[in-house]
Amino acid sequence: MNQRLFAIGLAGVGMAMTSLTGFCEAKGDRLFRAGLESYQTGQFVEAAQSFRASLSNAPAAGTLVNLGMTEWRRGRTGAAILAWEQALWVDAFNQPARNNLQFARESTGLDAPRLEWYETASTWLPTNSWAWIAVLGMWLALGMITLPTVFRWRRTSWHQTLAALGLGIFLLSLPAHFGVMTRSHLGFVLERKTPLRLTPTAEADDVATLVAGEPVRQLRVQGDYAFVSTRSGSGWIERDKLGLLCPL
Amino acid sequence: MSSKILLLVATILADGMLSVGKAQVPPQAPPQPNPLMQLMLSQPPMDVTSPVTAAASFDPPAVRPGQKAIYRITLNALASNVRLPERIPAPPPLEVQPSVQGQILKPLGNSLQPFTSINYEVRANQAGMFLMPAFYVEANGRQVVVPAAGLEVATDVDASEVARQLVVQAERTNLYVGEQVTVQVLLPAVSNNVESVREIQINGDGLFVDKGAIRQTIGMIEWKGSQLPAYIYAATVTPISAGALKVSAQGFASGRDFGGPIVISGQVVIQGGTPQYVLLGSEPVTLNVRMLPPEGELPGFKGAIGQLSCDPPRLATNTVKIGEPLELWVAVRADVNLSRLVPPDPPRVKGWQSFPPINRGYVGANRGTNGGIILAYTLIPVSDELRSTPAIPFSAFDPKLGKFVDLTIPGVPITVLPDPTYTNSLAAIELVGSDRSPPKKLTLSGLVMRPGKTVASLEPLQAQGWFGLMQVLPVLLFGGLWWWDRRRQYLERHPEIVRRRRARRELRRVRRQLHRAARTGSVVDFTQLGVSALQIACAPHFPANPRALVCGDVLDLLEAEERHGPAGEIVRRFFRTADVKNFSNSAESDGKLLGLVQGLDAILAKLEARL
Question: Which residues from chain B sit within 8 angstroms of residue A29, using beta carbons?
């Protein structure tokens, strides 16, 4: 009796989860379509609101591309570049986002973020795939080392090959894995003429003035200010004028 | 003799030097007049020295409550030299809104006089006689008085007396970005008297007005249910942004001063006399402009919008030598003005060197076809194996169908003759040059129609807590396997543990059957099961197969007191009864054994405790 109740409860929870997921997807899709319609009629403010609401349900590469297009039409270069960078963060193979970023940077004279070699490696595949690759590689290697002993299988060369392969994949994916973590601190200036301050106060002297869309690297946070490193130097900028690639 | 020769040489040298000297000094050309200066001097002078005077009036001077009137200020000064106060001193019941402002140059004898007009829309919701007081404006750096003007607002005013204004009509109001539309600015005749309009401006954000495609006519129009003549100004307008765009117009009503060629049709009256220039505005018309659909775009689309068609392409000749330029003509027709068409580029294909097309002129409309332009492509074959010109991808967006239409210019059969002077290396060089495609011009991508790849969060997976926790599962799995392996090895070293555990399990099962047999009164089964239970409980101690044990083996495991006491007797009775049953023909059974179930249970419990 108890087992039956448990099974029914489990099925109920499963159905509720499926319904909830389906509801969220349907809502996100409806907002996405509303954004498309607003964009096509030239109502870019409404389109941006719809795309942002759709993203709050489920961040999707296509929605981010369209949000970037909308922000670009509104003249908000920083927000557009951030959206396209986030689209590439979600889907490294997204050609429209890559093309739009190239176009935006060529037309505004902005530079792309300066990446270390391990960060460049991390852009070759979708961000989350590196975590899965590292984990699968590690457990494959451990499994192939321990399981033949535990189950008293006759040791064969393919066990060792698989173990070596898993270990190799794990070790090779580590730099990219690290690159993903460091890239998550990249951000982009959202507003034009954003001052880069010497200290985290409103009265501080300006070190430099940043343009919208300029890439920065957030190093630490204090109150409403973030300490960032840019090509113009390091300093503090207001956090609401900074869009992080991976908002935490 | 020698002196004559010397004189001759000296004469020749002197003449030569004189010639060289003459050649070094070029003849003075007459000074050329500067054409720009000549053009400026040929224009009549502008009168900017006369004292500036201002005038003000209401049009019409009397209106009903709530009806619109135009308050018009005019000055004989350039508009850029006029500074108006931020708010004009209108009496409180009058609601004043800025309308239009314009400037025209009026002919005044042999000179031109600047004339600036500023219009305000005025409404009053209550009846009365309202006076707009005199006030100062700055013109040419001096203070000029704008005289007072009066407006009568009364309920018994003739409603047909309204402020004159221009009328804007758009051919279509639902458009796509980049689609051309003809916008007409009309000035209906008053009392069959048609007036021209000068300095017409079409106002509106997000619009491109093609000044090269303007036409002015006088013709009959249907206005408020009746036919009457009107001045008609038609211009081609192209929306360049999406959304609801408002289009309005302004211009000076200027009597018979047409200021350019005009087509007059029908019977109209044009009054003579000196024109009075009156600045008029219009009510706005809204154009609903959409972006082009991002899906379905075809190759060769360069922004052409309209109902376009291509005539079959023609060649100057169908037989060319390798390396000879060949001109391909194609007429593109459309229901819109094609003067700003961006023609499709020829494709970069192997075997052809191609050049961007040029406009070779226009073709007129005839027999139900639209007019258009002729594009000429210059193509150079660099191989004698070519059999036709390359197809040129071209497409346009048809706003009536709401989709892109393929207009690809097909290839035309040709014969390429080999030229002995055209070497393979030259062909290779040209071919390489032809294949060097120009750098691709970057543009924004279109909208993406599907959300695409979705993630739960932008936070990297490795930074999310659940992902770290999930790694505990394989750790637990491998830990469990390790523990199981260690346990298995231990049991292999101590098989008696396994035997005893197995014996305990088997003993419990047999004891349950034993009790069931006792309850049902099955003496035979009870006896057999009792013996089996005793054998199972004792087997791990030897170790031996339980069925191989005899009564003596079981008794050996009992304490000496038990062996000779009631417990030993019970064991012996069970084995004896079982042996009788198994090894003799006697069918008798000891029914009293069922009464020994308590005693047997106690023995089995003791034996089980020793396992």
Answer: 451
